[in-house]
Amino acid sequence: MQKSALVTLLILLAHAGFSQPASPPTPDSATGKITAAAKGFLATLDDAQRQKVLFEFNNENQRKKWSNLPSGAFQRAGLRMGDLTKPQRDAVWGVLAVALSKSGNEKVRQIVEADEVLKNSGGGGRPTFGQDEFFISILGQPSPADPWMLQFGGHHLALNITIVGEHGTLTPSHTAAQPAIYQLEGKTVRPLGRETDKAFALLSSLDEAQRKQAILGFEMRDLVLGPGRDGQTIEPEGVKGSALNEKQREMLLDLASEWTGIMYEAAAKAKMDELKQNIANTWFAWSGPTEKGKAAYFRIQGPTVVIEYAPQRLGGDPTKHLHTIYRDPTNEYGAKWWKK
Amino acid sequence: MRTDLPGNLMRLTPYLLLLLAFPSQGFAHRLDEYLQATLVAIEPEAIRLQINLTPGVEVVEKVLALIDPNKDGVISTKEGAAYAELLKRDLAAKLDGRKLEIQVISWSFPSLAELGAGTGVIEIEFLAKTAPLATGSHKFTMENRHLPKLSVFLFNAARPTTDSIAITQQKRNKTQSKGEINFTIHGS
Predict the structure, then answer these.
(1) What's this model's pTM, rounded to 2 decimal places?
(2) Residue-averaged pLDDT of chain B
(3) Does B23 lie at the interface with A, CB-CB under 8 angstroms?
(4) B15-40 as b/e, with b when 16 or more CB fall inside 10 Å?
(5) Which residue ranges of chain B lie beneath pLDDT 70?
(6) Smallest Cα distance from A11 to chain B, Å
(7) For the residues of B46-115, what is the DSSP string, one character each?
(8) CA of B175, closest CA in chain A: separation in Å?
(9) How many CB atoms lie within 10 A of CB A230?
(10) What is d(CA B108, CA B17) in angstroms, rounded to the nearest whole number?
(11) Which end of chain A has fewer CB atoms < 10 Å from its terminal CB, N or C?
């Protein structure tokens, strides 16, 4: 009897990941592979580069040093992609390939490509744009046991990936795109296209009463909790998950997966499981036109998630310039796993 | 609290120079609007307003004319305080229909270069002390009349940090220059 109680307790603790100390990953686990890839990247660097890319894990200034803005308008630290050799750049992409899901990695590549398109379409000068202007930095040492953090960002991208043992989180992170639609090798690319389409699909699934709750009667011209707003929280608004039917809840989760699913599979699943548990207390709000293809703002907010999507009026057509933010007010930078 | 830019650059109308240094299209930085984002924190004995202000590159000269009236390229402590007070005078805050006396608590200004580039954020915090709020329903209203023709507004209630306060409803006008927060104080 005592033994079964102990087993039950261990199972409960295993599911309550946040309340237990992080257990070290095995080399075959996702975080084990990410750690190995990050060490492999560091091994490609010389001493001066390693000194530039590595920061103390407790360096709060560096942890929060991310932005939507391009180089020239915002000074990032770490190593600039344009200053790396091709094998070193490949190693950076190798780390991201294991830290992110296939679709997440593709999204990130497309955001970077979009900035290259922007550069080639007249965005030269200062601030500077393009794939060379993305930076990588690492806080702490890639480790199977100790917390460490990988930052990769530039104009319209800020990935803040914190790894603590077997746990991993992407919050807070910023994805965006300008142009949000472009042609590459004969194909039309929309880095944030699925987010846009799924949001309009969810909105169109709402009945009149639900729409009345979801649609805010005022303009939302920007993100409320964008870069620089760490630690702030806002009161949720819109239609609550408890007022949605099962299909709509699935659509809401599927929309949220465009952010939670950027991370490697195990972390994405853990986050999605959390969102499913909280779906009744998760809100969906909309501001702006409701016709598909128009520029509109939306927000998903639950106990452990805030996602905002805000078209920008800067640079012409707002449907071609999108900003988003992804936060977890209870676990920014994975703090619940490492903060004493 | 001082923000400096080389004097000779300042004398050459630096804001225009900075504008010219950027591409003509609106890449990344705010352009023709002044974003004023207000976060309202309801506390047991106070209302706190955190206002972040971001002038776009095409309106920054008008904003800087108020912040740096002597155009010496330096936002002195006195000028920073004066601008915070100017903004305060343009705010009308009420609790349960009664005018609130708000005080400037802190302010910070980015560099003039950042402001000129449309990327700088001015942060000003205000506090209105109240008597301990009675159990029951309350209504906070605020109107921001600061540079309305240039501005776009965000108005949001912060999540209360105590369970004794519950936000029950938020209302805004279309532009969010006016906002209303209904909340309830629960008894202990």
Answers:
(1) 0.89
(2) 86
(3) yes
(4) beebbeebbeebbbbbbebbbbbbbb
(5) 1-30, 188
(6) 31
(7) EEEEEEEEEE-TTTHHHHHHHHSTT-SS-B-HHHHHHHHHHHHHTEEEEETTEEP--EEEEEE---HHHH
(8) 6
(9) 15
(10) 24
(11) C
